[in-house]
């Protein structure tokens, strides 16, 4: 079931900052930070799972299990990237049903041609707007829980221009999307124009090194946005830390002088080892489950 707190946060007009998660370590760390929402990034999840580019290679089967593991492992509501819905209208229906059953609170669908490409990268092509609007209508009909949110993304800005991207955003509003995501505007002025044109909650994609300027959350809210996702922040930080640690180990043959780390004890706590140890200790003493004594 979708978490009703996410829909309530939008209704209350609280600005939502959603960090990207891509595996269970990132999910558990972010889950303890007090965010209103976490965002399962396609780029990061495909990279960590398959070690390949986010270029339409991962399938529904590759993704739904990992998405579900992250959603079920977090107390925080989760929105998950589902690319194009992994095919046509029937695939979209199957994807929405599967992601909702997996425990996410929102699904992101985009209007790219298959195979899709990662946002903020060149060569993205989009399907006709009317075809995407049908996908959104199918998605809205397929969900069982009204708290399950549909994020409609258009990648039209890069190849077809801002006006077409805004037109598509309005179409997707009418088709039943709960949140509109116009990918990769290229200036703050463009973002302001989007904020003035779209009525439903708007999503800003803050990608370090991407095509869109990184604006503070307060400024995003001022110009009309309701949620900002930071899909790359986690895996970029993780890759940098790993590179530094591995380079130090290779150069010195010593892992003890790398500097500050998360700490083995903290990691065992994060992964739930104390509960495991308590369980094993209790049963090693021969304790019985109540009712079976």
From TrEMBL:
Name of the protein in its database record: Isocitrate lyase/PEP mutase family protein
Alphabetized UniProt keyword annotations: Lyase, Membrane, Transmembrane, Transmembrane helix
Any single Pfam family the record assigns to this protein: PEP_mutase
Example of a GO MF term: lyase activity
PANTHER family xrefs: PHOSPHOENOLPYRUVATE CARBOXYLASE, PHOSPHOENOLPYRUVATE CARBOXYLASE FAMILY PROTEIN
Top-level taxonomic group: Bacteria
KW Glycoprotein (keyword) present: no
InterPro entries: ICL/PEPM, Pyrv/PenolPyrv_kinase-like_dom, Pyrv_kinase-like_dom_sf
Gene3D superfamilies in the record: Phosphoenolpyruvate-binding domains (3.20.20.60)
Native species: Roseicella aerolata
Transmembrane parts of this sequence: 223-242
Coiled-coil segments: none
């Amino acid at each position: 079931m979708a978490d009703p707190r996410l829909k309530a946060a939008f209704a209350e007009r609280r600005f939502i900052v959603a960090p990207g998660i891509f595996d269970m370590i990132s999910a558990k760390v972010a889950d303890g930070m007090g965010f209103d929402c976490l965002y399962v990034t396609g780029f990061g999840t495909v990279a960590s799972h398959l070690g390949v580019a986010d270029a339409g290679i991962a399938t529904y089967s590759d993704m739904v299990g990992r998405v579900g593991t992250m959603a079920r492992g977090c107390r925080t509501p989760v929105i998950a990237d589902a690319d194009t819905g992994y095919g046509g209208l029937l695939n979209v229906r199957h994807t929405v049903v599967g992601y909702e059953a997996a425990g996410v609170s929102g699904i992101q669908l985009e209007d790219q041609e298959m195979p899709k490409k990662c946002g903020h990268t060149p060569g993205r092509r989009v399907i006709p707007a009317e075809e995407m609007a049908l996908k959104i209508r199918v998605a809205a009909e397929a969900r069982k829980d009204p708290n399950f949110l549909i994020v409609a993304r258009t990648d039209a800005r890069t190849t077809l221009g801002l006006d077409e991207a805004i037109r598509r955003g309005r179409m997707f509003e009418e088709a039943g999307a709960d949140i509109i995501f116009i990918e990769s505007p290229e200036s703050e002025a463009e973002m302001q124009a989007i904020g003035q044109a779209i009525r439903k909650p708007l999503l800003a994609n803050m990608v370090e090194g991407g095509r869109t300027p990184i604006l503070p959350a307060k400024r995003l809210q001022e110009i009309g946005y309701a949620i900002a996702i930071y899909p790359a922040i986690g895996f970029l930080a993780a890759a940098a830390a790993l590179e530094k640690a591995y380079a130090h180990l290779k150069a010195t043959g010593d892992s003890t002088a790398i500097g500050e780390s998360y700490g083995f004890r903290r990691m065992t706590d994060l992964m739930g080892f104390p509960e495991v140890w308590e369980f094993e200790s209790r049963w090693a003493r021969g304790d019985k489950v109540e009712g079976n004594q």
